[in-house]
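Re: [help] complex structure
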Amino acid sequence: MITNLDEIAAYAALHETENQSFQLFLKTQNAERTDEFVKVLNERISPQIDCTQCGNCCKTLMINVNEEEANALAGYLHLQRSDFDERFIEKGMHGMMLINQIPCHFLKEKKCSVYDYRFAGCREFPGLHLPHFTQRLFTVFMHYNRCPIIFNVIEELKYSMEFKK
Ligand code: SF4
Ligand code: SF4
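Output below.
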């Protein structure tokens, strides 16, 4: 298993063509069977990777925020909600709220400084426990070169599904 971020990025750069072929291959496979492989690999690999020693997703993710999350975090930070919004929130279409900075304001060194109040998008990422993996290939492979969990699950998936022998 590779967890070094530089090694992952270098490996990814050398395997772009292979990964494009693998995505095409996955689209020909039974989606439920693929979900099952991903689930098993994710359950084995995720616990072996310490996100607090990485934090790489917090440098690149665009984070959605809902009202409840914004209120809770503003309270934790002892800020009026209007001040919280002014400092940290960008409003999109239909009142959608996003954290207004990438990397995220709350990333300190490699750790989330508001961990108990982090947003649903942060908690869910990288989302390999979710069904319909095959429908999310674009997003998954977007993060392949920077998330050690995704990287290692994909690399093992190539062998599990006999794309590579
Ligand atoms: S809130 Fe925390 S977990 Fe979420 S992106 Fe920011 S630093 Fe990362
Ligand atoms: S989810 Fe991936 S990119 Fe984010 S901290 Fe964990 S291993 Fe790193």
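Residues 49, 51, 54-57, 125-126, 147-149 surround iron/sulfur cluster (ligand 2) (CB under 6 Å).
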